[in-house]
TrEMBL record, chains A, B, C, D, E, F:
GO BP annotations, alphabetical order: rRNA 3'-end processing; rRNA catabolic process; tRNA processing
Cell inner membrane recorded as keyword: no
Keywords assigned: Nucleotidyltransferase, RNA-binding, rRNA processing, Transferase, tRNA processing, tRNA-binding
NCBIfam families: RNasePH
Annotated protein name in UniProt: Ribonuclease PH
Length: 240, 240, 240, 240, 240, 240
């Protein structure tokens, strides 16, 4: 089996994490998983949603979008259509849950951190790149809060990153690009923390159902991929 | 550890599958997982969506809704709010993918089977009950097509059912009700076929991340639960 | 003249009123007018809309929906289309007005009773069944308020029920089912109180305009039908 | 009993029907019921809606709107809010049904007549003025079709007009203005043809339920009012 | 060059400004630029939008709409389509900015003046007629505030009016009607104050780009046209 | 007078035009006017809108959006709010008109070129940067059509670019950044062709109305700025 990308089954694409990519946001990160480029910004808003008012606790939420021509064929602009697709909502809910899993909202104070993940160029794996990049943007925004002494302790409890795994022509592979993703039997997105716990697992059999053994092989690959991604995050943050 | 429902960790709730619950639909099933009651109807439409026209292949899609007072606190009616929530869209996409996984759309002819899963009363696990019941409604609708000789061969390739598993106060448990779900660390929905393959796995750590061993224990429970659910489906269809 | 339903001109369909049909709502009634089945729930919300705040008075409002396959041909789901049809809005406004006509909102306190009428199966007359069933659900919800001593006096001033009448092939008939309704010249919905006053009359000539004599005959039938329906309501509530 | 308008119980307001009020529409009528002024235009569109295509039959439909400051307090602009209220939809459905009742759609050919009723100034009775004025606009549009020899026979079978009646401080009265309408017990809109048949009756008890005797008195008033309105229509059309 | 309207290049259409056209609004003006008729109403609302609360300053805003059959071919009703077109929003933003340019919002107190410009009949130049008429409606509404002694000093600092200019078959012309507008190379809308300052200039080359000399000629025409319009405003207000 | 940006009154910001910024679009340009960065993509769609079908002519249209945190304070995501603001629609209409002014749609064939201008980082002048960058993206997309021999002759008739001018503290200045724009009296956007003709002029007095002499000074600045921008476009395209 040869992957279209010529990569070894367990090999990530080239990963780049560029901080301070734009100048207004408290955290602004361009993350690249090969040809997938996502701009992740973290914005601090000194308010919480209604259901949290007066509870002395913060909130973290995420939104996701794709530029209309980030893809091979132009997609309709969601703002012009007047609604977000189910896929978009699914992804932004996933990003939000994944990051909240490593944040102690009680330590954040009554404020919201809003993460925006906007896909500039897509080549598969936009949701995993989004989570991985958004964590770094979040980290930068938290540093702003610490530096301004708005909070005394970082609410971030652990690192978190995400990667896709799949079964391509019978072989479990890591970090599928668009070509591989379009032609694979199973596609699974795995979100894990720095200490190796699972935060989210979402696996879908696109063709044939998958077996327990395949699942185990995919999780092994994901575990290895996540470790590498967290090393990239640490390097980008100067924490390595 | 005692579950709020007093059930053993691997014990399903009382399952009921009532066919021909309403009279207009080609398939109409009321499925009960304990106090969770979902009406699943299958409707045949002699058209396909635009992207499939002229391809000599069928389509299967699903929609999901909750009656406003199916829950403890009344929810806003989505039709009045003017849009479906992200959660609703996520669930109906899951139901559609799960059923398409066991249907050969080429054998369906240029027609659509539309599955509607409407929650009459909710007590946790509405999406797994929906998938499990919708399969039976689909089976009945396919029988109508066969009886009318609109198709010669059933496009259904296997059974499919779904169940939730979770980690409740440290113990992996099967088929969480609302009380258990609200208080558990991990919630995972598993969709499997009659032949034991995975179609979908969606696991979320609500509190602490979960470990590989917990995941394995949950998958074992799911496997056992799905086998029982498929037995209920067969019994309901008189195929046992 | 023989009605398709074989009923005598002034004969109701089989009427059933089942209380406590689902377990969460303060009032939950499944009402059946023959093959028309509507689930009516009453929910208490300890708030009033903005225009009533601080006026020491309650509110009662209604929403109506049909499950997509409650009908012979599947209808689009209003939540998916993103808006309610004019027909839906017309019916839910009618239900709300009809019930407010027998409720003293000053005695309700600053709270809202929300009635939801969801059609599980349709065979004509869904709006009249909704009003008739919703009254019983409302009665149960008021009993909850009395039992909890949130109010001292019932705000319900009278019974209210609704029935359709029409002119079918020249003969005035009571309680039209779908087949009769589709083929009649005139369709009139009448809402009356227990003391025999009119709350609403809505008559439409579907084919030929109708004469004053036909109108009088229809109102006589309606009067008789409403008396029977109120007897069913009383029996269901154990007040007969 | 003295009406706020000083009119006798059975007295209409001053009625004016001005044809050719604007220059583009095939029919354009400004109708005045006292201080209620509605611009009714009829537009011919050489298409029919999808459900009528190829059936060799025409269609007639109506839309209704109020200018934001046609009323004492400015109302939100429906175009800016992004949806029409239930009241608006109810009224435009009523206008359409009322006019279709006197039109033979088979004689119209495969084209649509669209009636737009826009309230310039409101003082009660906008829906009845709309129906009464729209009929005249429709008549003018049909004349255009006849003159252009697009149709050979007029599809208009009869005149149609509408009026409100009510019970004001215990006395049945005709053609309520806003002040009377706001303070009456019962409000009923009646649509009748030139030959005296009922097309629509919509009566609502705003306060106390109304009795059969009151209803009969109101219908007598309506009958007399409609006869006068149709005389005004005929005079305006030069058919008196 | 002969204009389709037979007017000289610098000649306005017949201008009429009719005050108190409808009776509810604090200012109500029907303005006619030839066959373009716009009803402009000014409504006083004793509130300001959220972003101005507590700032002791007023607000002025405008909305614009066209009746569906104000034009040669019926346009879709924006309220029925569920959104305003980009053109509508562009025009109402322009009207609001133009009038705010001559109003001292600090002198208005914490209240909003809402201008509604509704086109009854269109023949080109609806936005310039709207601005010109809305100013007079605004003036009347301010007089109401002064007469009620709600404000002591008029917040109106200057007159404002608007006119279109264009290049028609090579010749700069003033106040284009629909026929001229459809066939001209350049269309420019100019908003000026009584003291001759520019408030807005919006010029668009519909065909060939336009040269600086043409622009200068158009601005000369606009200047002359605005002076005449302001004379009409003054005459209508009895201030001449 | 010293501009906040320290620039001379007639000095542009640093201009950069980077082609082939993303890899999927037929034209993809990142344009920078100082700290304003806009990604402009041109997509070819082998269809035209309904109103042009069968007319043997092409179409060109534009959409515009800002990433939520392209600005100092995060803006709501339009896709999440469910509609585009009036400002967004105004800008995208302007971009489309400006580019169509230099394109011969008859030479394009029955296809659409869709321009997307997405603001990555905003510091004033996003619409002028968008037009200037979109022209280069359009040029690249047309080259693709020529290279594929889908068209024989370029439909591009001239260059087009846009710049803002304003009156800042009494002095006419070129190419305002956000700080300058927020504090200026007049803001004018000018779109001109390579041959020096005006395509669009949109000037707004934000504070005091502006005089003819100021307008002339601003147009002189704009003329000089546009010449420089077109030189940058030519250089980027290798046509200098």
């Amino acid at each position: 089996m040869m992957r279209p990308s010529q990569r070894a089954p367990g090999q990530l694409r080239n990963i780049e994490i560029i901080r301070r990519y734009t100048r207004h946001a408290e955290g602004s990160v361009l993350v690249k998983f090969g040809d997938t480029h996502v701009l992740c910004t973290a914005s601090i808003d000194e308010k919480v949603p209604g259901f949290l008012k007066g509870k002395n606790q913060g909130w973290l939420t995420a939104e996701y979008g794709m530029l209309p021509r980030s893809t091979g064929t132009r997609m309709d602009r969601e703002a012009a259509r007047g609604k977000q697709t189910g896929r978009t909502q699914e992804i932004q809910r996933l990003i939000g849950r994944s990051l909240r899993a490593v944040v102690n909202l009680d330590l954040l104070g009554e404020r919201t951190i809003q993460l925006d993940c906007d896909v500039i160029q897509a080549d598969g794996g936009t949701r995993t790149a989004s989570i991985t990049g958004a964590f770094v943007a979040l980290h930068d925004a938290v540093d702003v809060l610490l530096q301004k002494q708005l909070i005394a302790t970082s609410p971030i409890r652990d690192f978190v990153a995400a990667i896709s795994v799949g079964v391509y022509k019978g072989t479990p592979v890591l970090d599928l690009d668009y070509l591989e993703d379009s032609d694979c039997d199973t596609d699974m997105n795995v979100v894990m923390t720095g200490s190796g716990g699972f935060v989210e697992i979402q696996g879908t059999a696109e063709g044939e159902p998958f077996a327990r053994t395949e699942m185990n092989a995919m999780l092994d690959l994901a575990d290895s991929g996540i470790r590498q991604l967290i090393a990239y995050q640490k390097a980008a943050l100067g924490l390595a």
